[in-house]
Amino acid sequence: MTKNRVKELSYYLFFGLMVLAKGIGLDSGVRFYYILSAAACLCLGIKLVLTKYSIRQIGAMAFLCIIAFVSYKNSGRLGIVLTVFALIGLKDMELKKLFRMGLAIYGCSFAWTVIMAKAGVIHNPLDVHMKGGTELIRWGMGYSTGNVFHVSYFILAVFLCYTWGKRYDVRRMLALMAGNLAVFLFSLSYTGVIVTTFFLLMYFYGVKRRELSLAERILFQLPLPLCLIFSFGGPFLLDIPLMQKVDAMLQARLSFSAYYLKNQQISLFGARMRDIPFFWVIMDNGYVYIFMTFGIVVFALFCAGYAVLIARYSGFSGRKRHREEKEAAGSDRGSGRERLPELSIIFSFLLYGIMEQFISNAFMNLSLLFLGEVLFGAEGEENIYTEKEHTAKEEKEDSAWPKGRQWAYYIGAGAAIAAFYLAFVPAKEFVRVPLDSLLYVDAWSAEVSATAAAGNEEYTKKELKELMARCQSLVEGTEAMQEAIREAGLEGKLSAEEAAAAMEYSIPMSVYNSGKYDRFRIRLLELYCGIGKEEYARLMEEIIRVLEQQPEEASYQADADSVYQERIAKSFGEDRIEHMSGGKEYFVEKDGNIVRMEHFRNGIFYGIAGMILLGSLHFIKKRVG
What we know:
Elements (H helix, E strand, L loop, with lengths): L2 H21 L7 H20 L4 H21 L3 H10 L6 H25 L6 E6 L2 E6 L6 H19 L5 H18 L2 H19 L5 H6 L3 H11 L7 H9 L3 H11 L22 H9 L1 H19 L4 H10 L7 H18 L18 H14 L5 H10 L3 H21 L6 E4 L5 E11 L10 H15 L2 H10 L8 H6 L1 E4 L2 H6 L4 E7 L7 H16 L7 E2 L6 E6 L15 E4 L4 H32 L1
Antiparallel strand pairs: 1-2, 3-9, 4-6, 4-7, 4-8, 5-6
Helix pairs in contact: 1-2, 1-5, 2-4, 3-4, 5-6, 6-7, 6-8, 7-8, 8-16, 13-14, 14-16, 18-25, 19-25, 21-24
């Protein structure tokens, strides 16, 4: 094997492992993600050792690595380091081949994740959400949220479109648009469906448009500054009614950005966000996230890199030189048409950055890979952007796919499968989900004070947990719980066993932080069918009264009038519901619409799965044949 081949394969392994991690929904909170990252970095090290760099390039790489490591040290976010690694390893790599390889890995991992989540083999996170005036379930389909599921489909569409290149046509655009709508049916992500639609239309324009006019070149310089103005100006204009409406449409993203910009530390090289008041106050703006998390220097480099890249691709910078070099090489890659597809990818990710924070990660924000041209300049760009046409191979791939009439048969078969399911498979009474699938849930809570015995000034953490365990055995005892249910008027609606399964006990974080272990929290999770909010509150009040009436437990002090409602997340340690048994199942049903929608979704899912399976079998048969 030649040196160049080893060099190429090393980077492909690096990129492939990181794309695999994102394709199956891993992030920095999962140990396996770090294992894959370590293996990927080892592969990248081999690539860097075998690659020849100029002094200028080595200096630029060293500068970026130093900035990345300092930002990582300050922020604790590994993504910035991996993104820089992806860029410095790009020299001598052909992006088209890189995207083709990434498509194979990401496409398979995306399909595997969705199918396994639907089958219940892996976690399928959900969120009972109000959409269109009714409550519906937003499914993560193996990814952390419905939004991330739709982001993942968007990334798959980018891989597909850039791999197809000039072969991207109306037929392919409509197929991806149908997939976009199918994903929306489960994700319910307005952000995802809008940005993906924008990309599919913009990429079609980029492929078909040959030359840019002067007005278009000027217009194409605006998306980056407009995104920045909106991201950093909008949070300070929330007293204007129009901006308040925009903020509501964006699910309070401007308000969240305002909190971080006004209350958290702004630094040169990144910082960790501290003392966040509520778990749901999230930096869902990519620009604010980069600015606050990685610091001013990284943010300035990010913006400068994109500004230079957009200027080059739109013809404002180096247009004549690019054209002369490519014409000399016998290629038209320097023409305006050949840069428009890349611009459409860049603009789509910039738009997504207003509403999601992932744009700092090169294995999700694929447009960051184009910054290789900025990093390596004239010496590197020929190797990066040279594209062999592979005409014979592409024609073979096209001929292998089903044609119009064949796809009509497969679409008809999928529709028949969906119709059969909807007509003959009975809908379930309610949706059962395991606790560890919940993103967050409403709960009715109360705090129980623990009075230390005489001669003991206060409890230790261990003693408080033992006291909490005794409280649990009292509350969940069949006799005590039945009494609470009877007094709350819920007999026939809820059994003692079901109510006990919905109880959660924890020590508040404020108690941990203070070190004074004098109280714990009891929660009743709001998950059951046919019970209203007032009934939940009444049941929780009766549970507290039952606890107060236990004469042998004078160390408990609880107040039924102190019951309050809250929304809790599942991934915030022992103070949240994560520590409960994942084997418990809960019923998700509020008004009947959830069950009907799930039945409809299942029919659509199996219809689409059948159609894709038939088309894939046709493709494999033709390719093998």
